[in-house]
Design brief:
This protein is mainly alpha-helical and about 300 residues long. Helix content is about 55%, strand content about 10%. It has 2 domains: about 1-90, Alpha-Beta Plaits (2-Layer Sandwich), CATH 3.30.70.2350; about 95-295, Rhomboid-like fold (Up-down Bundle). The two termini are about 40 Å apart.
Length: about 300
């Protein structure tokens, strides 16, 4: 915001403010002993605003200034209406941790509950059995040490396309905590605003694509070895991408991602890619986000 000049006390500052508003320039007026100090919000308008101020000082009686009053009132009325609508639609995703109730977000609650139950089972003596039943693929070792993929999915165990999302690192409570926090907040927002079936479709498709992408990437970069990966992160990034795009292209849906949360998610995406945090399913993260962005853009 920059000061463009001062009006004498005998001139009405609102008349100038109204006129500048009709030209797309928002102002602030401060009363000072020497007169009315005029500020312009957008510095790109600085030169033109100063010129208009000088014109007003030279010819304050020009009818164009007084004709602008009614137009300025209509502009302010429209801005107030849009602001009220925005505030009605706008929801900080962090505010959705507790409300609404379980009946309005049954799928989100079920996904969180299933992930927690699986995590508890992963701490039990049956952990290996549980994980082997949920991994994308299991492997066998021949007497000569050769590793074979058991091709479980091709043999009918199609649930493995999805089930790796329910497992999390046994030794990292932060892994499941981070994923469940985002799943609950993002999933709740989508389920309440767009419905359970739409969320279900997004979760299933993003789970399959992110898991398959991670498997194919690991097979390409490290062939001939077992590929184990787990976690809800690919789905979380899909939900993030979906809400991000809805906020940009369909804000009337009431799903607006706070810019700070966008920055956080993108930061973690690239931080994980650096390898600083160890082996992470970056392909699942990236492809999950691509799925979410695609569905968000195409009005799903």
């Amino acid at each position: 915001m920059r000061q463009i000049g001062t009006l004498p006390k005998d001139l009405d500052p609102k008349t100038l403010s109204d006129y500048l508003l009709t030209l797309g320039m928002k102002t602030r007026i401060d009363e000072r002993p020497e007169g009315w100090v005029v500020w312009i919000y957008n510095e790109d308008h600085l030169t033109r605003a100063r010129d208009e101020l000088q014109d007003y000082l030279s010819h304050p009686e020009n009818p164009r200034y007084h004709r602008a009053t009614q137009t300025a009132q209509a502009i302010r009325s429209q801005e107030q209406q849009l602001d009220r609508q925005f505030r009605k639609n706008y929801r900080e995703v962090t505010d959705l941790w507790a409300p609404p109730g379980l009946r309005r977000r049954p799928l989100t609650s079920a996904l969180v509950a299933a992930s927690v139950v699986v995590f508890v089972l992963q701490q039990s003596p049956e952990a290996d059995k549980v994980e082997n039943s949920l991994y994308f693929a299991t492997y066998s070792e021949a007497p000569d040490g050769t590793i074979y993929n058991n091709d479980d999915i091709r043999h009918g165990e199609i649930w493995r396309l999805v089930t790796p999302i329910f497992m999390h690192s046994r030794r990292s409570f932060l892994h499941i905590l981070f994923n469940m926090w985002w799943l609950n907040t993002l999933g709740t927002l989508i389920e309440v605003r767009r419905g359970t079936l739409r969320l279900l479709g997004l979760v299933l498709i993003s789970a399959v694509i992110s898991n398959l992408s991670q498997y194919l990437w690991m097979e390409r970069t490290d062939p001939g070895k077992p590929h184990f990966f787990l976690g809800m992160s690919g789905v979380v990034y899909a939900l993030f991408g979906y809400i991000w795009m809805k906020g940009l292209y369909e804000p009337e849906q009431g799903m607006i991602m706070h810019p700070n949360n966008v920055n956080i998610m993108i930061f973690w995406l690239f931080l994980c890619m650096t390898g600083v945090l160890g082996p992470i399913g970056n392909a699942a993260h990236f492809m999950g986000m691509v799925v979410g962005i695609t569905f968000g853009v195409f009005r799903y």
